[in-house]
Amino acid sequence: MLPVVIVAGGVASRLRPYSEERPKSLMELEPGLTIAEFILERFRRAGLSPVYLVTRKEFVEAFRSKLGPSVVVLTVDREEFGNLYSVYTALKHVKPPFLVAMSDHVFEYEMLKRVLSHRSSKAFTVCLDRKPSRAEAQEGLKVKLAGGVVVAVGKNLESRYGIDTGLILVREKAYAYVERVISEKGPTASIGDALDLAAKDGEVDYVDVTGLLWKDVDTVEDLAKARALFKKILIRDYGKRCSGPLTLALIRPATLRLASLEPPNARARAALLAAALLLALGALALIATPHLQPLLAFALLYAVAFLGDLADLAAVLARRGEGLVRVVALTELVAEVGVLSLIATALGERVPHALTALAAASSAVPIFLGRGGGRPGRSAWVADPLLKYAATAAIAFAGFGPAALAYWVCSNLAAAWPGEVLAAPPKPAGEAFPRLGAGVKRAERKLRAAAASGFKLALALLVLSYAQSYLGDVVLLNLEWLELKVGDVVPLLALVVTVYYGYRVLIGAKVLVDALAVKVVRALGVTESVARHIGLDALYLLAAWLALAFVPKALQPVPVFGSVLSRAAALALLTIVVVLLYDLVKVVYATFEDAFKRALKSVTEAVGEGEA
Q: Residues 94, 67: contact at Cβ < 8 Å?
């Protein structure tokens, strides 16, 4: 039983006008879930009690009505004070050891777990992030190390070693440092002042939390980032899927983005759609197993792992309860049996059918036990879905059938290892406060998306070009009427990738055109509508011209219908180019007709004088 002191005395001036309506920590990460409630859930899960929240007089009723009797709300007896004075106020009600937490810091549970499990006799233990972002390093409380020992703490230190993340263990020796700093610097002293004084005496140590998720909320931009980070934290804390290295590297970046749809209600639909596709792939694996070549089989394994992770994450982020989770679990089971059938076909008669049946049955264990509502244990990384599918298939194709099925069973048992049972997060309702959509710069958001899409497009085309060069002759599917090679598929994939990411780049470029139109208006003396019309025509003409040069060639290798598709695409794109070019010439001439006539008259006069 360790007490907690939550520091919540700031006025959040950088979050105005929202902070004039309610305190910063009562702003919501998602509908129905405030920052303070999210933090309190962490403390309840860790068994920390009692919880004291120190705030200003004007915020007392807001905190009491929202957080209820489970939190003791304390009031600071002055208007101007630093965060150390909040701790000093709490010392009248609680004695060390206790945990100090900032009310505006969002963090994952593992960070709290690490600091609570740290054994030390020092006055203070801080959580040190060695790899913060540049913005966090500039804003945060820096920690200076020498030989692995904390020797100084302060806002104005160099950000060479890392920053404090807002969770601090305070022990008996800390009382003297708090008293001394308050007496010397007064009520406006900060926690950093006490930590720096203790560090000079060697009374501060740290827990390394580098790589764990956390966010300090000071501005509107910080709140937007915290809302996005909250989803990742929720997945780490409540996610059913075992997060192994392959899934984190090759699947999670895309599935997290897809599962984080707005509004939250859309996530339930995404989970159901992914589950339906997963069910279809499982059926396909059961039916088409004899006709699949190894490379296509591995692609199917990846698709199953991808859709399974997407369905899991979307179900978790939808926060719809156990019903949706069970639906996803059933489709995962069908897909896993389909994947196992692929491997069993590769094994043929080399292993007993009883062992194959046991492996299939083991897939139900983690789905209905280990992944239903608890967090997998430390050994669960072995059950990373993509790693399980790929390793089992590789072992099977290498000729070690029993070993492959044994690995499958062991990975399923690892995923079902008992873990901590978590309370389900509250169901989303309404709209989160404050609504930040109006405050987000639309142009900046689209330009960022365009830049990111351009990078992804270049990377994807590079990968596909290497695949074409080194794997082009590999057969994917070999039927009586059709032989499909990698070289046949790569151009089509390149076309899909180019259209998808190219469209996103085009949207960002359109924002640039809108911005440039204002400057053109001033420079040329035309209206903004005319400038935008000319700019968009030129932009779309360039995009259509590039498509005309690339798309028909990309469609030619498509089996059976490639030639027809290529000619149809060329004709359609050529028509678009002609129409856009005609419209561009027409609007330019209509806008600058007088200038053209004057230029033509000057040329005519010059020619006439020359002839004379």
A: no
Burial of 442 (0-12, 13-18, 19+ CB in 10 A): exposed
Asked whether the beta carbons of 283 and 338 are under 8 A apart, the reply is yes
Per-residue pLDDT reduced to its tens digit, 389-413 = 878 877 877 777 788 788 778 777 7
* Alpha carbon distance 290, 475 (integer Å): 15
Across the range 14-31, mean pLDDT stands at 84
CA distances from 94 to 4, 220, 235 (A): 9, 34, 34
Runs of H (alpha helix) within 123-207: 134-139, 174-185, 191-200
Q: Which CATH superfamily is domain 4-220 in?
A: Spore Coat Polysaccharide Biosynthesis Protein SpsA; Chain A (3.90.550.10)
Given a contact cutoff of 8 angstroms between Cβ atoms, the answer to whether 160 and 144 are in contact is yes
Output DSSP code: residue 146: E
532: nearest Cα among 545, 546, 547, 519: 519
d(CA 165, CA 150): 15
> How many CB atoms neighbour CB 559 within 10 A?
14
Domain boundaries, the chain: 4-220, 239-415, 442-600
What is d(CA 11, CA 83) in angstroms, rounded to the nearest whole number? 12
In residues, how long is the chain?
Answer: 612
In this prediction, residue 464 has a pLDDT band, given cuts at 50, 70 and 90, of confident
- pTM (2 d.p.): 0.66
Lookup: tokens for 269: 């639909």
**Residue whose C-alpha is closest to residue 219's, from 11, 17, 25, 14:** 14
Q: Please measure the distance between the N-terminal and C-terminal CA atoms of the chain and give it in whole angstroms.
A: 107
In sign, the C-alpha dihedral spanning 217, 200, 152, 146 is negative
Label residue 101 by pLDDT band (50, 70, 90): very high
Q: Report the candidate in 216, 213, 219 with the shortest Cα–Cα distance to residue 237.
A: 213
Let me know if domain 239-415 sits in CATH 1.20.120.1760.
Answer: yes
Mean pLDDT for the chain overall: 79
Q: Are 473 and 425 in contact (CB under 8 A)?
A: no
Q: How far apart are CA 5 and CA 182, in angstroms?
A: 18
* Cβ-Cβ contacts under 8 Å for 569 (sequence gap 6 or more): 551, 552, 555
Tell me, what amino acid is at 501?
Answer: Y
Structure tokens at 292: 């699949």
Residue 287 pairs with which residues in a beta bridge?
A: none
Residue that has been written with the tokens 């790589």 in this structure = 211
Condensed to tens digits (0 to 9), the pLDDT of residues 502-556 reads 888 888 787 777 777 777 776 777 777 888 888 888 888 888 888 888 888 877 7
Q: How far apart are CA 445 and CA 23, in angstroms?
A: 28
pLDDT one-digit tens code per residue, 47-95? 898 999 999 888 888 888 888 888 898 888 888 888 888 988 889 888 8
Reduce the DSSP state of residue 33 to 3 states and report it.
strand
Kindly state the tokens that stand for 319: 């926060």
pLDDT category at 373 given cuts 50, 70, 90 is very low
The C-alpha atoms of residue 219 and residue 373 are separated, in whole angstroms, by 35
pLDDT tens figures, 555-578: 777 766 778 888 888 899 899 999
